[in-house]
Amino acid sequence: MTRIGPFEKRRKGYFVSTNTRLLDTNAIHALLRQSYWAKRRPLGVVRKSMRHSLCFGLYRSNSGGRSARRQVGLARVITDYATFAYLCDVFIEPTERGRGLGKWLMGCVMSHPELRRLRHFCLTTRDTHELYKQFGFAAISKPWKWMEIVRTPRQARRNNSGRLQKERTINTWLKHSRPRDRRLGSDSASSSRAAFPGLS
Ligand SMILES: CC(C)(COP(=O)(O)OP(=O)(O)OC[C@H]1O[C@@H](n2cnc3c(N)ncnc32)[C@H](O)[C@@H]1OP(=O)(O)O)[C@@H](O)C(=O)NCCC(=O)NCCS
After folding, report:
1. Which residues line ligand 1 (CB under 6 A)?
2. Ligand 1 centre distance from Cα of residue 5 (Å)
3. Among 14, 92, 105, 137, which is least packed by CB within 10 angstroms?
4. CATH assignment of 8-138?
5. Which are the contacts of 71, defined by CB distance < 8 A and separation ≥ 6?
6. Domain with CATH 3.40.630.30 in the chain
7. pTM of the model as a whole
8. Residue nearest to atom 46 of ligand 1 (CA)
């Protein structure tokens, strides 16, 4: 496993750090509950996700120094540090928004030495494209190459028992594929069904 030392950047009144020991899990859980994508993410899942990710905590540093810090933001990067990274859970506390902190946090993420050299960096967003565009992100150029599995919380829980559930994989692929690929894909769709009997 790659051991990466903590990365830190400062600006007046705030600092960003990847030191996992500084992360305030309860505060992050409370922040994410206000998001549109992780409203119902249980605390245990938040903890586990942070343990296995490169987390950029954003802190307001009060006059008492580091110990008096307050967690006011987060950006989480899921990565193998070699080939791929996925940016998610970008969040700034509502009272701290509109002061350039989101941009600064993104600048910190993009300047991390282990992420700068990766060839593939992805994210998904509902409405914050303008922020990410400023850091070089663009819409996926070949969406038909991408596939996904989306499970409801109930399906994910049931999958713990080892049973393969019906997935939206093929539907998602069909939705985004071009007519030509869709024709070619009729073969791959049926072979996927053969390989995954749970698919319909
Ligand atoms: C999006 C968010 C991280 C931006 O943080 P912030 O500190 O308020 O942003 P900044 O003051 O640094 O502004 C950065 C840029 O982001 C853009 N931006 C800010 N909020 C935005 C929003 N809600 N939607 C779209 N773009 C937004 C602005 O265009 C701004 O660029 P500009 O200065 O060139 O106009 C913050 O508003 C937030 O936490 N929102 C809720 C969670 C969220 O939507 N996260 C992103 C999920 S993909």
Report:
1. 35, 90-92, 97-103, 125, 127-128, 130-131
2. 28
3. 137
4. 3.40.630.30
5. 23, 24, 27, 28, 31, 57, 58, 59
6. 8-138
7. 0.83
8. 90
